[in-house]
Amino acid sequence: MPYMGRTDPTPKPAGQPPRGKPNPRPEPKKPIFADWAMI
Fold this sequence. Notes:
With 39 residues, the protein is low in regular secondary structure. The protein is built from 1 helix and no strands.
């Protein structure tokens, strides 16, 4: 299995949630990194 974010053909910008589970609306009361960190 390829390393996530390493050999990924589409490099994701820092601070953005991983593709496949995009956040429809970032909550102001919760940081963005906490959104994908809970996965």
